[in-house]
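ok so i was messing around last nite and threw this chain in just to see what happens. nothing serious, just curious
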Amino acid sequence: MKFSIDNLALSHADHRGVEGVDAVLEPGRVVVILGAAGSGKALLLRALAGRADADAGQVRLGGRLIGRFTGAERAGAIAQPGAGRRGLFGRKPLDLADAIAGKPHWLFAQDPLSALDPLTQLARIAQLRDAARQGIGVVVTLADPVLAARLADDVLLLGQGRMLAFGPAREALEHQKLRQAFGVEVMVIGDANGRLLPVPIGYATQ
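result:
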């Protein structure tokens, strides 16, 4: 089941969060929602799960509006492990391995690489990519472009109150787009797996 996002606009309280989100998320791929703090990453993830109302646009899963899914149907289609928090649907948080073992259609994870040492981050990245190889659609939020480049097949980049890019990681993590999203200059290096990593090196110049 694909996620189709059409001209989505979301707000939190009285403040517009993000607008102009258009994307199709394919199962069997890792999608990273990337952006700085306050860019609307968590809000967009909630909207994909049918837990945040849209100001405009729509989200469909398998051609059906996500808002028309029952809570049980959403829970059956989407798993979200929670690191010490209550799960997205009010249940006891799932461990990531348990969530993957349940073979959901989609796996959502909010900041799954934060506060981890580098070795554990690499193991978690391998775990998430293995889930995608099993056909699970994986959507995670991150605030680090280097980790996004290591993990993602596709990147949905948020910044300046809107979607700045969506597509394969090599294209979405382009220097100028990251400059807009984070206000930093980057230097691109390659890793041992041939992935290009955009490493922040300083403040963006005018």
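not much to say yet. The radius of gyration is 16 Å.
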